[in-house]
Structure formats: C-alpha cells, structure tokens
Design a protein that fits this description.
single chain; 145 residues; alpha/beta; Rossmann fold; 4-stranded mixed sheet; two-stranded parallel ribbon; 6 strands; globular
Length: 145
C-alpha cells in the first residue's frame, strides 16, 4: 500500500471518484481501510460484507459503480490479480494492473489490463491519461497492452 494514499489524493484532486471494491469483510476490511488511511479520498466502498460472491464475479464491482453513480465505461478497475481485471471488465470497466499480487505482467495483460506497472504510483500516469502505452521515459513501466 506504499504510496497508495498519495495516488488516491492526486486522483481525487483531479476530479476522480474512487471506490474500493474488495472481498475483505468485517475486521479485515476495517484493518485494510485503516492501513490505507485514505477515507478522505474514497467516495464509496463495496466489500465482502455487501455480498457473498467475490471476484471474478462482477457484482462486487457493480455495487461500487452504483454507489459512485458511474457507468462502468467511465471507470478503471485497478487490481493486482487477473480476477480483479476479469471482474472489472465483466462489469464494463477498463482494467489496469499492478504487480503487487504476485502475478506477472503477462498474466495481468492477458486478463485484459490495458496497462500494468510495478505499483500504484507507477500506474498513476496511465490512470490520469486513461491511455495505455509505454512511456519510454518511465523505467518502471513493465508492460502495456
């Protein structure tokens, strides 16, 4: 989660509406929210307490989208597993991936991520532009689909 708060702050200041969609529930969800320390920037959450079906089922992402009041086509699902990408795409979002979940760039790209970076901070330029593609000046870009 290193750097996540700063990325969320920047996205929110740029007019982004942020939702957190996670399979975590109960105390685990509360603990992760506390560690993230970003409630000021998160407009909505959908967690395992909201429904019994986790990712790659798209319903959790759908709940987050409804809470945000946005269509999937207006959003990007960021995750660190192919299941996150699959859930987002099935819910109508774009998908982007980070390598913090132990999956390779190829696996995340094959799951449909338009961009994959080492972590959320490295993914920020893509999130701000909404465009995939490799920026040659960014050595931390690993793969763009």
């Amino acid at each position: 989660m290193e750097g996540a708060r700063e990325v969320l702050r920047i996205l929110a200041e740029q007019g982004g509406r942020i939702a957190l969609a996670t399979d975590c529930k109960g105390l685990s969800f509360t603990r992760h929210m506390s560690l993230l320390d970003s409630r000021d920037y998160i407009a909505a959450t959908a967690c395992g307490d909201d429904l019994d079906h986790g990712k790659p089922d798209p319903r959790l992402v759908g709940i987050a989208l409804r809470k945000l009041g946005l269509a999937g086509s207006q959003t990007v699902m960021v995750g660190d597993t192919p299941y996150d990408a699959e859930a987002g795409i099935e819910a109508g979002t774009k998908a982007a991936g980070v390598l913090t979940g132990g999956f390779s760039a190829d696996v995340l790209a094959d799951a449909g991520c338009f961009a994959v970076a080492r972590d959320l901070s490295a993914l920020l330029p893509n999130l701000l532009s909404g465009v995939g593609g490799r920026d040659p000046s960014q050595s931390d870009w690993l793969r763009s689909a």
